[in-house]
């Protein structure tokens, strides 16, 4: 199993189907036939229900997240742009990966041809890398905003540049899947897997495949988790452990409270990611140490659950945003206003729509240079996700006093 979570069979024991391709080729006919026995109908029904439910929530929820941010000017903040990038990656892995790989894992037969074998392996690895790098970009942005508040904030152009770099690096990291993915045909089934240049029919494993999977495991899991833990630990100490010098005014306390809410939401997202992917990486380590585990009678059932858990990470993020952020929650209510829910129908004025992608923002540096005093910029205020009526008085918007009055009347609960 590759550390990326790509549901394919590789040359070595590091495959995500639970099947060691080279070990299988050298296994007895009895072992092979027992492995390929179809699951009981009731087990198949349960797995179908789980995967279809996960697909609907992951794809639908993340599309709504993209709409909430891009269709409403007040939601276009640095953090939310990164969340859009994360949502796009989750939508892509849900649409182009989950159901195809679930079918392959269920029947141990690849029905979709050589070209889609390459694409499916590539897009899965690419989107996982995008998610991890986006987590790190959000953590760095939060770190700068909270630990070094006087430094200039990221502009829209810089954010788009960072997102572009994230995708370029992810494509490069996933490129071997396009180059070496292929299919192997038995008389009654087809397997999609990675065939590295150093693999031969007589070899037990590919050293290149092993090195690649270790690289993915380090870059896509262990190194990011350590980095994120250190970053958010430092942020947590700043927000919860340190004490302000002098008297804390209400506006100062409210700003700290808002920052804490954003950090809590992002920590929840990262923890869920770590929990969802940990069994996959444990499985990778165990099957490399104990090759015979891949022929265990219940490997397919266990691995289907592990794979579902890893892929289900894509559906949890919209749920976290809805539960932990009032503005996202109201965006979801606004999206479902056509439904029978009275609360949803009453939310049609909660967010201000705009077709433009960027919103006009005041510069912290320019205001300080002109007046010699510190102010809260629009970027900082919006990025802190104000979610209580009492916080609305502290928001500063680049709009006229007339429109500002109308804005507050419709957005006091954002």
UniProtKB/TrEMBL annotation:
Subcellular location, record wording: Cell membrane
Entry keyword annotation includes Ligase: no
GO MF, any single term: tachykinin receptor activity
InterPro entries, alphabetized: GPCR_Rhodpsn (IPR000276), GPCR_Rhodpsn_7TM (IPR017452), Neurokn_rcpt (IPR001681)
KW Cell membrane (keyword) present: yes
Major site of localization recorded for this protein: membrane
Membrane topology reported for the UniProt record: Multi-pass membrane protein
Membrane-spanning ranges: 46-70, 82-107, 119-138, 158-180, 210-233, 265-285, 305-324
PROSITE patterns hit by this protein: G_PROTEIN_RECEP_F1_2
Gene Ontology CC: plasma membrane
Gene3D superfamilies: Rhodopsin 7-helix transmembrane proteins (1.20.1070.10)
Superkingdom of source: Eukaryota
Domain G-protein coupled receptors family 1 profile: 61-321
Keywords: Cell membrane, G-protein coupled receptor, Membrane, Receptor, Transducer, Transmembrane, Transmembrane helix
One Pfam family linked to the record: 7tm_1
Protein name, UniProt field: Tachykinin-like peptides receptor 99D isoform X1
Species in which this protein is naturally found: Biomphalaria glabrata
Lineage, highest ranks first: Eukaryota, Metazoa, Spiralia, Lophotrochozoa, Mollusca
